[in-house]
Amino acid sequence: MALPVTAAKDFISGPRVAQAARKLLDSCPLPQLCEALATASAEDAEPLVSALEGLSEIEEVRALFLGDGVADFLTRGASATEPRLRLTVAKLLAHLASGGEASVGRLLDAGLFNLCEPLLLDEETGVAETAAKAVRAGVAVPPGQQALVASSGSLTEVLLRRLPELPDVQRIRVLALFVQLGRVAEIFPLLEQQGAFEKVLGSFLTDDLLLKLNAVELMDALGSYELGQEFLARSNVPQKLEADLLDPYCDGSVRLCVTRLLGFIAGRSAAAAEQLLRSHEAPFPQSIAGLLDSRDVAARLCAIHAWATAMLQTKGLGFFLRWKPMLQEMVSLISATQNEIAKGAMDAWAIVLEVRAPEDQDVELHSGSLAMGFTKAVAKEAPESYKQYYLPFGHMRKYDELKELVATLARQEPERRSRLMSADFMEMPNQPIGQFQEILRAELKKVNQFACVKHEDVFLGLRRLCASCKRLSPEEVEPMAKKIRGLGEEIVHLDTYVRLNYMGFQMLTEKFDACLGTSGSPLFVSGLHCEPFCNIRFDDILILLGLAWARWRSAQAPAEQSKDATWKPPESFIRNTSKYWVQPDKVVLLKTRIVEHLPYLIFGASQSEQEKLLEPFALLDLEYSGGMDSQAMNAYAGTMEESQLLSSVYFDSPDAISYQERIRREEGARLVRFRWYGENNQEDDKEIYIERKIHHEGWGGAKSAKERCVLPQSDVFDFMKGKFDIEAYFAKLAANGTKEKTIKGMKPIAIEVNKMIQEKKLQPIIRTSYYRCAFQLATDNKVRISLDTQMSLLNEYQANGHPNKPWCLVGTDTLQRDDIYRFPYAILEIKLQDVSEAPLWLRQTLNDIGAIQVHKFSKFQHAMAFLHPQRVPILPHWHQDFDEWHKAKEERKLRVGKGNLSAMLRSEPAVDDLAVPNVSKIVAPHGEGHFLKDMENLDPKAVFANERTLLHYAEKGMYVAAVAVVVLHQGGRYKVLGGLLVAMTAVYYVWILVAYFQRLDEIKGRSKVVKNREARLDWSIGPLLAATMVSVVLGFSLYKGWHGLLQRHELA
């Protein structure tokens, strides 16, 4: 036993190449390895299994697995009592079947595919799923299709015969295999002829509720591809599915599945659409209406998608456009408060709205023009090791194929179609447009696989580094920091990969639509949000990166902070705050830079709780190669997030008193907001923080501060209306053991805010919602960095306030399009308490990401300026940049579809050229490197200083003027000198007056007065002239005095 195990360990520890395989087999033949595995202990079995799997991947060795000794082992292992051996056999079969047509042929000749039947029906899920991989790999080649499906007595026929006697779990497993095999176009009609899909449908239409629930995912999978949709649209399947919607006790997941399937069917078949959409009271449209009224996001998205797909048919289009309440509801969803709903609604409308291409355009494509902006972005931002996994553009062969496909399709279309939707795509699997879809699917599979594998690689790498950071010798500190920094760079590259490929798919399909007059791009792009590469969990790897750096710092300086410390927000904040705008594509880079120096601060989670991500089962071993089912996706979703949802409702009067006080920066200006963390489903015990912000000018000595108290949500409405007993509430807190210091801090704030609301008639007017991640020590509030992303601004104003509960808008309330505003930048706040300036590493990071420091930026002021422009007489200093940005985006929308198609295709589309405003800014002085966006203010102190300078210079001129008058009255030769002094004084006064007005213009035209010390407002020769004037007066006075003294001495 020792020899096979030792040889196997040597093999798996090195590169798995043919030379290593021959070395292993020379010392221990394959039958000997198999026999050793059959009798090995659990500890010895692991290297033996890994060695056999590695050997099965090498082409030169695969034929040896079909020898008598190994084949006997596989046969005996398939029926072994130990699950470990059965799983090993299934894995070996899957590896051998994936070796191509020759390998599958050898397996068929040896009769080893017969082992798949018992393995597919194995009680162990892992064994059965691995056997299913082997079958799927076998039918991917013609010999396997013939033997496993088409021939008499094939594996599928045997499974179908055994289906009635199988328990529910094995039955669902076999039916799932049929659905997966049906994705192969050649296999589907064979399985349909055998009755496999009728069995799938029967498992869903049964009265057995448990079996029906298990079959929901089967039906979803069957309806996810074209041939499955065609099958469901036949005979009386829609009527059978429709019957489930009439059942008042229908399970929620079943209702969602049926609605989704009927949407596919209605979009696929005109006859089915006629039947399903016979009236507004029919089950299908009523189900859509009911799901739209649900509070569940998944239910509403299902209804939106079913509505859009049903409208692909002319019948569906006319039916829903005439149903005015439904139409109004779908229009209002575009401005829904939930981003997922708003995005889903916009994608649905993009599918429905007609997109016409100009009729007089040619369709010539020019190499490299399709996505010039994309290729330049990839060349600039992607490392070499990633580029081969990006979408192929420009010089690559597949782009040439795509170019030819589009041109061929255009030539085949005698009449340009004004409305070519995804329903048309389903009818042309063998046409160029279908081939284009195949290319998209192949590229999408490649992108998904690379993104998921890279994420898992980074995740596991960080876990290993976290374990290695527990004990570091002085020599290991710097190499370990280099390794952690390298994985941080990988996270940034992965973020760039996801972002650019999403843009690439969007640009590619949009150009295809523009050339052919189709509108399939919105449907395809909306589906990208469900793809694995768009659902990569950056939270997990960013938190792990922060933990790795925290452990690395602790290894150098233990007790950096307590692991068990959990941060709680204090009742009062007095800090110096600077705010920056950060472009969304720089957010991940910024986070990786910050966690190198400061740990993540997750609300309510200590470092020990964050380290749960280091547990062995934190990341499931998922199969990324195929579509991920809902259970797998849910398991992959994780539980800890590095950014938490934060929402604030700001209060102001209808005439915006608080806004005007704040933007004028009046001393003592106050602002009231109610804030909560996480989701708010109107739970009575939800903590709502009542906050009052107060502004103090620097010359007064006092500092601006934010103070708060907390109320349960059940009391907020009464508090707003002045009906809340504040004294009784805090007495109850004291009785429940709340510290007296805490009560003394919160009670005055509650009284003050309540008084302000009643006296100034304040009411909810603006809501801000965003995801915030923070970085600081959990035990120290001196330095804190927070980053707000995906900020949405919402109009909370109602004419007479909120007369009834709830106290603020909820998810089911209807909003207009102009009631919501999405801010394009991420907002970085650096908050310092008893610290003079930001550290050097942070200033360097701000320079690297091109951050824009915005003087006195306010989310409240921005929301008021764009959601209530009629109420604000003064606009923020950054308003003009955003106003011009909005106008530019509107102009682009108007230009779409109006230009020459060939010219458009020859153009170079820039990636994200209007993603954010083009902000007027300057480089920060003193070598800080980042940008500044300062308010264009007129500093009164600078104006008064200019006036004082004019008066001081005029005073010096009066001295010379007085001397000139005296000299003129002397007569004789002094008159010439007096005249010169008068002329010089006149010129001097003209100069100081011109200089005064020039300096005043500079002060009014400057974006800042104090901060840029290099730009001078004075005139360097001014003091010299003033000194000259005074010297003239002093010299003349001394001369006259000395001359008079001499004359008196002579007379004496």
UniProtKB/TrEMBL annotation:
The keyword Nucleotidyltransferase does not apply. It comes from the Eukaryota. It is a multi-pass membrane protein. It is found in: Vacuole membrane. InterPro entries: ARM-like (IPR011989), ARM-type_fold (IPR016024), DUF202 (IPR003807), PSMD5 (IPR019538), SPX_dom (IPR004331), VTC_Complex_Subunit (IPR051572), VTC_domain (IPR018966), VTC_sf (IPR042267). The chain crosses the membrane at residues 976-997, 1017-1039. Keywords: Membrane, Transmembrane, Transmembrane helix, Vacuole. Residues 372-526 form the SPX domain. PANTHER family: VACUOLAR TRANSPORTER CHAPERONE 1-RELATED, VACUOLAR TRANSPORTER CHAPERONE COMPLEX SUBUNIT 4-RELATED. This is SPX domain-containing protein. It comes from Durusdinium trenchii.
